[in-house]
Amino acid sequence: MPFGIPLEIASLLPPPAWPSDAFATRRPPIEYSSKQTEFLSPPTEYELHDVTDNSLTESLNLNESLVPPSEFEYPLKDVADILETAPHPPPTQYPWDHATPPQSSEHSSCPRTDDGLPPLTPCIKPLAKLNKTMINELVPRKHHKESYLLVRTVTPQYTTLTDALTVIAEDEKRDVLMVQLYHQEEGSAAEEDVKKGTVLMIKEPYLRVSPRRMEVSIEHPCEVIFLAGNDERIPEQWRRESAEQSEVDTVLAWCTKASDHMIREEYRSAIACYNRALCCSASTEMSYLLWTARADAFLKAERFDDAVADVDKCPPTSRGLLRKAQALYNLRRYRECMYVLGAQNLLEDPNRHIEDDQVAQDLLNRATRCFVKEGTLGKYEFRQLQEEAAELKPPQLDHGTYVGPVEIRESKISGRGLFVTKAVKAGDLLLCEKAFQCGTYNKQPEAGRERVSDILDMTIRKLHRNPSLIPHITKLYHGSYEAVQLPEKVDGVPVVDTFLMAEIIALNVLSCPNPSTKKAQEQTEAEPRSQAWGWGLWEWGSYVNHSCNGNVKRSFIGDMLIVRATRHLDPNTELTWPYIPRGSHTTAWVQDKLFATWGFKCKCTICEDDQRDPCVTTDRMRLVALLGSRIESLTTKNQVIDEVDWCVARLADTYQRPAGEVPRLQTFEAICTGVERLEQLEFMPGDDDFGLKEIKLRLEALEALGYVIDFASRVDKNSMVPKFVVREWGLWYRGVIQHWEFFRVFYHALGQKFAEEYVRKVYRMVYGEDETIDELL
Ligand SMILES: C[S@@+](CC[C@H](N)C(=O)[O-])C[C@H]1O[C@@H](n2cnc3c(N)ncnc32)[C@H](O)[C@@H]1O
Predict the structure, then answer these.
(1) What dihedral angle (degrees, nearest 10) is formed by the CA atoms of 579, 583, 585, 591?
(2) Does the beta carbon of 415 lie inside 6 Å of ligand 1?
(3) What sign has the CA pseudo-torsion 721, 726, 730, 735?
(4) Is 746 near ligand 1, meaning CB less than 6 Å away?
(5) Do 752 and 674 sit in the same domain of this protein?
(6) Is the pLDDT at 21 greater than 80, yes or no?
(7) Nearest-angstrom CA–CA distance, 126 and 203
(8) 653 and 713 in one domain?
(9) Is residue 113 assigned to a domain?
(10) pLDDT score at 97
(11) Contact, 759 vs 743, CB < 8 A?
(12) What are the start-end ranges of the E strands in 130-181?
C-alpha cells in the first residue's frame, strides 16, 4: 500500500495490490522499483486489520472517490472525524503517584517508538548537510538519516489524543502524508496554530507504522523547521501561492503586524513579524528598536534566553534592561536580576518610562526575597506559602530555592547522592526547592492551557524555549539510556532529546500531595484525586537515593519541595528517603516494586534483616496478627497491655541487631495495634496509673524505630507522670505522628508544655513547617 496519501483513507480501500496506483493523489501514479516494493510492503497484520473494517468507509462516504480529482482539500472536520475514529495509542504514563506505582523504566523509556526501534537520537546535522528526500521515497520504520523532507500543510493542525499536533502535508510532487508533531508549542490563540499552507522542513524523518496508520512522527521538536513566507528555501511555486507574497515587505508593515499580534497575545506570530522586520531593517538604530521590541515578545512567549540575548545586542536602555531583568527572574537567576535592576540604576535613569518604576521596584523586591531571604538564609513565610498553595490551582508558587548544608557527592549506595556537609539536628531544614517543572493529574481546561499538558511535554517545551536550562536536567539520572553529547543549538534551534527527557522524568519525578492546611484540604476535598495534585521534577531532590531506613522526610507546599532531617545527622551522612511507602507490605513486595520501577534492589538494614531469613519476617507478621485477634475480646486496659508486652517480648527474640541499626517495624506495628484497642476501652478500677503505662508503651513504640528516649531518669517531682527527653530520633514511619499527638494532648492536660516543642518538630517534618500548627492540629 502506498503512503503518499493519509493512511486512514488509504486503509479503507479494498485489499491492495502492492504497489498500486489506486490511491493516486493529484500527481500521476509513481512507478515503484522492485527494491522499493520490497521495503514498502506493509506488515501482514496491517493489511488484515485494514481491509476488514468498512464502517469508516461508509460513515465517511469515502469509498467512491477518495480524493477530489482537481482540488485536494481536507476540511478540518473530516480530519477530525478520521482521527477520532482511528485507534490511538493510549497516552503514555511516565510519572506516577507513589500510591499507584509507575511503569518500569524500560517501559517508559521509549514512549512512542513502539515498533521495536531504539529511541531515535535528535538530528544534530545542520540542514545544509542533509539531502532532500520526497514522500514517495520514505521507507516505513526507517530513520532517514542525512535526509530532510520539505512539505507544505494542506490542513490546519489538529490535536489528537496523543497530544501531537497533526497535519496533512504535501511535497512538491503533491504526494501527501500525515505528519505528527510531538511536544510542539501550543498556540495561546488559534492564530498561532499551524495553519494550512505552512511550509515545514522535517529533518531525518521517521515513517512510523501502526496498525491503522502511517505517518511521519516528529518526536524531537528540533527536527522541524517552520519556514517564514519569504524564506528562500520555499519553492517558487509555493511562494507565489502564499498570501503573504502580496504584502509590502517593509519594516513598518511588519512592525504594524507584530504590534497587532502582540495586542492579540499571539506572541509567536509577533516574533515572526519582528524577524521579518529585522530582515528589512537598514539601520543599526532601527535594529536596536526592533530587538528591544522583540525582547518583549520573547518575554511574553517565555523564551527568556532569547529576550536576554536581544537586550544584550542593544545599548542599555531602561526599558530593555527591565525586560532583561524580568527574563532573568523567570530563569531564576535572581542575583543577576537584582544586579541589572539595582547596579545599573534603572530606577534613576532620567529617560526611563515612569510607568515602569513600580514594575521594576516590585521585581527587585521579589528577586531580593528569593535570593537573599529565602535562597541564602532559608527564611520562608511558611504561613503565606500555605495560603498561596491553597489559593492557586495548580499550586505553583513564586519563591526562591534554599539549598541548606548539603552537596552532591559520589554515593556508596548508587551513583551520586545528596550529603550533609555538617552536623544537623532532627527537624532541621535541608532543602526548600522550587520545582523545575510540574504537571497536574487532572486536566482542568477551565484553568488555562498551562495546566493541561503533561510534565514531559511541559519540560521539553520549557527547555526548547530556554536551552540554557537544558544542562540542569540532562545531568539528572537517566538509567541505562545512552545519552549522546548534543550541541545546544543546530540551525539556530535548541536540541532537546525527547527520549532522554522521558527517561529522566520517569526516574526522577515525585508526586506532590495536596496542600496540607485544613483550609486547603477543605478546598481540595471535592476533587477526585485528593491525595496528590500532580507531579514534579526537582533538581536537588532528584539526587536523594532510596532507603527504607531513611533519615530525611520530604513534604510539599504547593510545588515547593521541603526536605528536613528526621534524625540527628553527622557530617558527611548521605540523605535517603523511601521511594515507596512500605506500609504493611512485605520486604519482597517493596523489592519488587523498586526493581520494576527504578531497576534496583534495596540493601538497607531493614531489607537485609528481613531477607536474612524470610520465615522470621512471616513469623513476626503472624505474631502481630495473633496479637490483634487476642486483644479483640479483652475488656480491661491492663489485660491489653499484658498481651502487648507478651508479643513485644516474643518479637524481641527475633531481632539480632539493636533497633538503632534495624528498626523493628513489626514491634512498632504490634504496639500500635495494642494502643488502638486501648483507645476503645473505658477506664476500669485498677487502671489508676494507666496514663503512665500508656506513655511508656508509646515511648516503647518509638524506641522500636530507633529512638533513644530518656524517661525514668527524669522524674518531674511536681507531676505524677515524668517528662521524657529524646536523645536520638528514629526512623520516620507511618503512625509515628499519632503517638506525638497523644503526648501533646496528654501532657498539655497535665499543664506541661515540654512535649509541644517535640510536636512542633514532628510537624515540621511532616508538613515542612510549624507556623500553621494550630490550624493543623
Ligand atoms: C532519583 S535517582 C537518585 C540519584 C542517582 N543515584 C544519581 O546518581 O543521580 C534514582 C536512581 O538512583 C538509583 N538508586 C537510588 N536508590 C538506590 C538504592 N538504594 N540502591 C541502588 N540504587 C539506587 C537507582 O538507579 C534509581 O533509579
Answers:
(1) 10
(2) yes
(3) positive
(4) no
(5) yes
(6) no
(7) 9
(8) yes
(9) no
(10) 26
(11) yes
(12) 131-133, 147-153, 158-159, 165-170, 176-181
